[in-house]
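Marked as duplicate of an earlier ticket. Keeping the data here for the record.
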Amino acid sequence: GQFLKAITLVRLSHYNQAMKIADRLASLPDFVYLAMALKGEILMRQDKKQDAMNLLKQIPATSLNDGRIRMQRAIAYASGKLPKLAIQDWETIAKQGGHDVAARRALACLYAAVPTGKNKQSALKNAQIAIKLSDDDWSCLVAMALAQSCNGEKQKALDFARQATDKAKDSNHLYCQSLVTQIEQDEPIAWRY
């Protein structure tokens, strides 16, 4: 419960409160490395990239076999605008299984954020897998909108963004509406990590 509360606080940009919870969790043997990864994300979001990297490097490789820890570290890297490192972790998570929808959605968004030739195709492939796994999930539709957009498919991107808007609730609905506007106005778009 406390970890989820900290995640919520991070998403609301209440970093000091989230850090206090992460510090408490770090004192519990079962949460030490998960808390370190969370603290890494908080530091990234506070533009303390070097401190975050130093902390994330302290997570032992053996603990990264736990998908939750690797996923949280991948989110930290993405939050710090380090897509290559985030992609490496998400690719490992996708291969290990267990978090398939989250991994494919994240990979689609990350590849779309660095739209080179190969990455464009990887964005589409991962978005297609995410939608196949969870076709009723608004966030998978957003991933496909991003993938289509980075591939120059504006109308397809708009279609998926509108579908996501129809399925999303509350602040996610507002995010999807803004995504539609950004695509319509040819503005740069990205997933909010």
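See parent ticket for discussion. The mean pLDDT is 94.
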